[in-house]
C-alpha cells in the first residue's frame, strides 16, 4: 500500500508549495530567501518524481507478496516517502512557528531558520537522490511482463459511492440462512416474560460464521418487549470497569462521576434494574469467569432477565440454559450461492449469475468455505467489476497468487484481495479504522474528522471534503469491509464497526507498513517510523518512549492510563496532529501537562475525557493555536465557569462539551473562536444561560443544546414578547441552525 502513502504525500507536497510565495514575501534576509529557494526546488523535484511513480506503484502492489524484488522496491519507496513527509512536516512546523512572537523574536527565529532551511534542503536532496537510484535499480531487475501491465484493481480514477447511495440499505442479504435460528432465538427470549426468572441463550461457532449478525438482528426485533435492553461487544481485551460502564449507559443508568469504582457501578446498575424485564446481549465472549464473576452479580433476583452470549468457544456455549444453545455452521452450498448472487449482482433484478460466470463463481465460493463474511467480501468486490469472464478471471488469479499465513483457512486471501482492490484513497481510511479496539463503535462524524485531518481526503468535483469522506465510508460499508450498525431516518450511516476477522488482517497490515501500531499490553512496542499509536492497555510502561518523532496520532482507549508515561513520547512528537485521550486520566495531574504542550503546533484534534480541568488549567489549552476540533467529554472539565479569552483558538471549527456536571457559565470575549462553525453542549445540566458573548462568534452556523438545563431550553422554545426571551433569541439570531433536546420530555426540536 505504498501508493496510499505516496498519494497522501503528494497532497502534502502540493500544500507546502502553496506557501512558497508567502514564505519569500516574509523573508527579510537574503540568506533566508536563498535557503528557501533551494528547499522549494527539492520539494518540487520530489513531487514530480512521486507523481510519475504513483501509477506504477498501484500495479506493483499486486506483485509485492509474490515477487521478492517488487516487495523490496515497494517497501523502499514507502520508507523514502515517510522520510520526505518528515522533512515537509518539519518545514511546515517551522514556517508556522516563525509567525509568532514580537519583532525581536521573529527576527531571531529567521536567523536560526536559515540553517534549518539549508539542513532540510540537504536532507531532501539526499532523499531525492536515493529515490532516483532506487528507481534505476528497480528498472535493472524488472520482472518480464510487469512493464505495461495495467490492473483492474486500485486506480486513482475510481469513484467512491456517493453520499446518498447505499447498495445495502436494509442489509437483508446478509441474513441468508439464519431464518430458522432467528425464530428459535426470538422464541426463547420472549417466552414467559411475565415470570420472574433468568434464561441464558448462547450462539457459538467459528469466526466469520455470522454470530454477531444473528444476535444483532434478533436483538433489534425483541428489545421492545423489555423495560431495559443492552447490546455490548466484549472481545478478548475487555476491562471489567469499561464493560460495566458500557452496560450501564446502554441500560440508561445514570452513572454520574466517571471515577466510580466497580463495586459502586454494580450497585447502581442493580438498583436501576430492580423489578424490570431486562435483555442483555454480550457479543464475542472469551472467558467463562467474566459471566460468573462480573455479569451475573449486577442483576437483582426480582427481575426477569434474558441473556444472549456469542462466542467461538464451547465453554461459553455450555453456560446456556438447557437446550438454549445454537451452534452456527457454515452456509450450505445453495445458501452460499444465494448470498453470493444477491451481493455480486445487487443491481440486477434477477440476482442470478450468468452462465458464462458460473464456473468462476463456484471457484470463488469454494475458497469462501461457506463463511458469510468471506462471501460478502468477494461478492461486494465483484459487484464493483464489469460482469465479464476476463474481469472475474483476473480477480481469481490474484487470489491464487496469495501466499499468506491464513487467519482462517481459505478466507484470508479473499479478505486480503478485497483490501488490495480498494482505490488508494480508501486504503488509508480503511486501515485507520483498525486502530480502534475490537468491536468498537465507529461514529461517522468522528471518522470523517480524523480522515480529513490526516490528509486522506481531497476535494472532488463540487463536493466538500466531508462529502467525499462520507462517500468513502459508504463504499467501505458497501464492500462489507465495515458493518453499518445504525442509520438515520434517510439511510445515512451514523455508526459502524469492523468485523474482528477483518480487523485482524487490517491491524497486521497497518503494523507491517508502519501505518500504525496497536499496543494491547503484550510485549514491547518499538515506535520507529510508526505514524499512529493506539494504546489499549493500562500498562504503557513497555512502550519505547524515545521513538515518537514520527507519530502523527496518539489514541488511548483504556479505562485508566498514567499520562506521565506518555510524556517523553509527546515531547518528541512535533508533527502530532491528533491526540485522542478517550480513557480515564484521573490518576494524572493534567493541568501541568497542558502547559508543556505548546510545541504541538500541528495539533488539529484534541479529545479528552476525565482530565478534570478547571478554570485556570483550561486556559493553558489556548497555546494549541492550530486546533480545529476540541472535544471535552465526561469529567474532562470540572469548573463552574469556562472562559475563552480574546484571540484564543483562532482555527477551532467545532467545539463539543459533554457531561461537564458543574458548568453553569460560558464567557466568550470578542475576538475569540473566530473560526468556530459548530458548538455542541450535551448533558451540561447546570447550564441555564446561553454563552455570554456568543453573539461575537459571527461564523457560528450550528448550535446544539442537548439535555442542558430545562430552564434554558424552554426559554428558547417559547415565542413570546418578554424581554428575557427576546434577549436570548437576539444573541443567536445569526446562527443558521439551533437544535434543542430534553430526553426526559421526549423533546428533539430545531428552533431555528
UniProtKB/TrEMBL annotation:
InterPro entries from the UniProt entry: Apaf_helical (IPR042197), Disease_R_plants (IPR044974), LRR_dom_sf (IPR032675), NB-ARC (IPR002182), P-loop_NTPase (IPR027417), RX-like_CC (IPR038005), Rx_N (IPR041118), WH-like_DNA-bd_sf (IPR036388)
Domain NB-ARC: residue ranges: 179-349
Occurrences of domain Disease resistance N-terminal (ranges): 5-106
A GO BP entry: innate immune response-activating signaling pathway
PANTHER family (alphabetical): DISEASE RESISTANCE PROTEIN RP (PTHR23155), OS01G0547000 PROTEIN (PTHR23155:SF931)
Record domain Disease resistance protein winged helix: where: 435-505
Keywords: Leucine-rich repeat, Nucleotide-binding, Plant defense, Repeat
Protein's recorded name: Uncharacterized protein
A Pfam family hit: Rx_N
Family indicated by similarity: Belongs to the disease resistance NB-LRR family.
Superkingdom of this protein's organism: Eukaryota
Molecular function (Gene Ontology), one example: nucleotide binding
Organism: Urochloa decumbens
Amino acid at each position: 500500500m505504498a501508493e496510499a502513502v505516496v498519494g497522501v504525500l503528494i497532497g502534502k507536497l502540493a500544500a507546502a508549495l502553496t506557501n512558497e510565495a508567502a514564505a519569500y514575501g516574509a523573508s527579510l534576509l537574503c540568506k533566508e530567501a536563498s535557503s528557501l529557494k533551494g528547499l522549494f526546488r527539492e520539494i518540487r523535484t520530489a513531487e514530480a518524481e512521486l507523481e510519475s511513480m504513483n501509477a506504477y506503484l498501484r500495479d506493483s502492489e499486486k506483485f509485492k507478496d509474490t515477487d521478492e524484488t517488487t516487495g523490496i522496491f515497494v517497501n523502499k519507496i514507502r520508507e523514502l516517502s515517510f522520510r520526505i513527509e518528515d522533512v515537509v512536516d518539519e518545514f511546515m512546523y517551522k514556517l508556522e512557528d516563525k509567525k509568532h512572537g514580537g519583532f525581536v523574536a521573529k527576527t531571531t527565529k529567521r536567523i536560526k531558520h536559515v540553517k534549518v532551511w539549508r539542513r532540510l534542503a540537504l536532507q531532501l536532496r539526499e532523499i531525492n537522490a536515493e529515490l532516483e537510484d532506487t528507481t534505476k535499480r528497480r528498472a535493472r531487475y524488472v520482472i518480464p511482463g510487469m512493464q505495461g501491465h495495467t490492473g483492474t484493481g486500485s486506480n486513482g480514477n475510481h469513484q467512491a459511492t456517493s453520499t446518498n447511495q447505499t447498495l445495502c440499505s436494509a442489509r437483508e442479504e446478509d441474513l441468508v440462512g439464519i431464518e430458522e435460528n432467528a425464530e428459535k432465538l426470538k422464541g426463547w427470549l420472549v417466552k414467559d416474560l411475565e415470570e420472574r426468572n433468568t434464561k441464558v441463550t448462547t450462539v457459538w461457532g467459528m469466526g466469520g460464521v455470522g454470530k454477531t449478525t444473528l444476535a444483532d438482528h434478533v436483538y433489534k426485533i425483541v428489545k421492545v418487549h423489555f423495560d431495559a435492553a443492552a447490546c455490548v461487544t466484549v472481545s478478548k481485551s475487555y476491562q471489567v470497569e469499561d464493560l460495566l460502564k458500557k452496560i450501564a449507559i446502554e441500560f440508561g443508568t445514570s452513572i454520574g462521576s466517571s471515577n466510580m469504582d466497580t463495586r459502586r457501578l454494580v450497585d447502581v446498575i442493580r438498583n436501576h434494574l430492580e423489578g424490570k424485564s431486562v435483555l442483555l446481549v454480550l457479543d464475542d465472549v472469551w472467558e467463562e469467569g467474566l459471566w460468573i464473576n462480573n455479569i451475573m452479580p449486577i442483576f437483582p433476583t426480582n427481575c426477569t432477565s434474558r441473556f444472549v452470549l456469542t462466542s467461538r468457544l464451547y465453554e461459553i456455549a455450555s453456560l446456556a440454559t438447557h437446550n438454549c444453545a445454537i451452534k452456527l455452521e457454515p452456509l450450505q452450498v445453495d445458501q452460499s450461492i444465494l448470498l453470493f448472487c444477491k451481493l455480486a449482482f445487487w443491481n440486477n433484478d434477477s440476482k442470478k449469475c450468468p452462465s458464462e460466470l458460473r464456473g468462476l463463481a463456484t471457484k470463488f465460493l469454494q475458497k469462501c468455505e461457506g463463511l458469510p463474511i468471506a462471501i460478502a467480501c468477494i461478492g461486494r468486490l465483484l459487484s464493483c467489476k464489469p460482469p465479464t469472464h476476463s474481469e472475474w478471471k483476473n480477480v481469481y488469479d490474484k487470489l491464487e497468487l496469495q501466499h499468506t499465513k491464513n487467519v482462517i483457512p481459505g478466507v484470508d486471501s479473499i479478505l486480503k484481495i478485497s483490501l488490495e482492490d480498494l482505490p488508494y484513497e480508501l486504503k488509508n481510511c480503511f486501515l485507520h479504522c483498525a486502530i480502534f479496539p475490537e468491536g468498537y463503535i465507529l461514529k461517522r462524524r468522528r471518522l470523517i474528522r480524523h480522515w480529513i485531518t490526516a490528509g486522506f481526503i481531497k476535494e472532488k468535483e463540487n463536493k466538500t471534503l466531508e462529502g467525499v469522506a462520507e462517500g468513502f465510508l459508504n463504499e467501505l460499508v458497501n464492500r462489507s469491509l465495515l458493518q453499518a450498525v445504525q442509520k438515520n431516518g434517510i439511510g445515512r450511516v451514523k455508526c459502524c464497526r469492523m468485523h474482528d476477522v477483518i480487523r485482524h488482517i487490517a491491524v497486521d497490515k497497518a503494523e507491517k507498513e508502519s501505518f500504525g501500531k496497536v499496543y494491547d499490553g503484550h510485549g514491547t512496542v518499538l515506535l520507529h517510523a510508526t505514524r499512529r499509536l493506539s494504546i489499549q492497555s493500562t500498562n504503557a510502561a513497555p512502550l519505547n518512549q524515545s521513538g515518537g518523532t514520527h507519530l502523527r496520532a496518539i489514541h488511548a482507549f483504556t479505562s485508566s492510563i498514567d499520562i506521565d508515561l506518555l510524556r517523553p513520547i509527546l515531547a518528541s512528537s512535533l508533527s502530532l496532529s491528533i491526540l485522542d485521550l478517550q480513557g480515564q486520566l484521573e490518576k494524572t495531574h493534567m493541568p501541568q501537562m497542558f502547559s508543556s504542550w505548546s510545541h504541538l503546533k500541528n495539533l488539529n484534534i484534541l479529545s479528552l475525557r476525565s482530565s478534570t480541568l478547571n478554570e485556570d488549567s483550561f486556559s493553558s489549552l489556548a497555546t494549541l493555536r492550530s486546533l480545529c476540533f476540541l472535544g471535552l467529554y465526561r469529567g474532562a472539565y470540572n469548573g463552574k465557569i469556562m472562559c475563552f479569552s480574546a484571540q484564543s483558538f483562532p482555527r477551532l471549527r467545532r467545539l463539543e462539551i459533554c457531561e461537564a456536571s458543574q458548568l453553569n457559565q460560558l464567557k466568550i470575549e470578542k475576538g475569540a473562536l473566530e473560526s468556530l462553525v459548530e458548538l455542541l453542549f450535551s448533558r451540561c445540566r447546570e447550564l441555564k444561560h446561553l454563552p455570554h458573548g456568543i453573539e461575537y462568534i459571527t461564523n457560528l452556523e450550528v448550535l446544539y443544546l442537548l439535555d442542558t438545563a430545562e430552564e434554558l431550553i424552554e426559554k428558547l422554545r417559547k415565542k413570546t414578547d418578554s424581554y428575557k426571551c427576546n434577549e436570548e433569541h437576539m444573541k443567536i439570531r445569526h446562527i443558521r441552525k439551533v437544535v434543542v433536546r430534553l430526553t426526559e420530555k421526549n423533546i428533539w426540536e430545531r428552533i431555528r
